[in-house]
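Now for today's protein:

——
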Amino acid sequence: IGAAKLVVVVAIFLLTFYVISQVFEIKMDANLGHIFAHLSLKFYYFLLTATKPPRYKCGISKACPEKHFAFKMASGAANVVGPKICVEDNVLMSGVKNNVGRGINVALVNGKTGETIDTKFFDMWGGDVAPFIEFLKSIQDGTIVLMGTYDDGATKLNEEARKLIAELGSTSITNLGFRDNWVFCGGKGIKTKSPFEQHIKNNKDTNKYEGWPEVVEMEGCIPQKQD
């Protein structure tokens, strides 16, 4: 911050001196005048680039280490704004892409390459859980699985579906209830519980929106699958 302030002071001084010299027609060598102007612009450009915060993939707060995939995701907001899932600076699912829907939204990513395998959503309010169960069973080992709720993601969930999601590394899926907000990132074949999970209960006393809790967001770095 101190260096940035010094740059500002020096730039202002140089620019002001040059402008005053022109206004009051102070005689100054033309080359020297151009040098002053050039230096002031250089300082100004340096100030802009030096103080601009770096941007990391998916807009996460810090860069991921090597052999990790950056991700950021958010649940839906009530029944108005859909969830969003981003991996390696690629938005896989969002309302803008028009590929999200009521229920549980799922994105599958190759654990070795980071490439998108599939995106789907399953209506857990008015739909049937059977297609969701078949989808979960079809996921191949080594696949990164990202899930986010929108509106209601729990009503039609049964024990079989919850067990399959738990096997992906989820701990909150057993408690996921009507209109809860939940985001999760796990993997097929994971040996431990995933550290990437956020869950907020639907509670009329604490809900941010009428009938729905606030949005849950999550970001992190997923280790690349090694052979």
